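Reference record:
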Amino acid sequence: MRYCVIGGANADIVATTFEPFVPNDSNPGSIRLIAGGVGRNIAHNLSLLGNEVVFLSFFGGDTFGWFTADSCRKAKVDISLSDAAPVGTRSCFLSINNCDGEMIGGVSDMVSAGCITPEWIADKLKRVGPVDAFVADTNIPMESLAFLIDHAYAPLYVDAVSGAKAPKIVEAMKLSSKKHIHTVKCNRMENEIIGTLEGVDRRFVSLGPDGLDVIEGTKTTHFSALPCEVVNTNGSGDALMAGLVHAGPQASVEVAAQVGLRCAKITVECPDTVNKQLKTLYEQIS
């Protein structure tokens, strides 16, 4: 299948402690530089799952941006319609993980994503071509998300990204004339922030180790998490979203949830934000 992803692309600096994190002190651990960004990770995962992916983004105008763009090329993600932000514009995410792989906190510097304006998207959509679905993250401006809601010519999936950015979905729906999204993916906190939202066909709420709730109309269905050995939780939500999209807009809730959970399981068992073993999963389910 062919998908178009619009969203953030950045370098992830992931710091993980060797022992339980001690606040206000220097903690021994490891620090790694990894290509990331919610949109970029989803695009990479979708490519590993055997899909053709067009990624629309602004890469940072620095060495981090070059590094991230190169990661997309290596992942066989089409970035021919993406652009570079002005020189010096940073796109970077710093994550501090506890020794158990759980993120303690992070700092997001996503100025370059602000370049993804409605006008820029309108120009790119003329050249994207046929796709089976669009995927957007809330790193893009609220007005741009509203534009996508109104002008996406295939089912639209939206990732809430974070508690700070989830309100963009609510505001974009108010600004939109269509007021319709096929799927929203969020975690427990983001779900509470979004609250009641009309016009969404399906809402997948990640509960971490407690599994996944799917809200469709007035019905809520719960799916248990798959047993796994947690190494790093960064990127697991992006893998979940990629699995939901890969299942296809016509897939049942049950099928979409199971594919998403399998992708998340594989990802949390890997130190990277994207696990290349997803390619093996694709070979198993194709």
Summary: The mean pLDDT is 94.
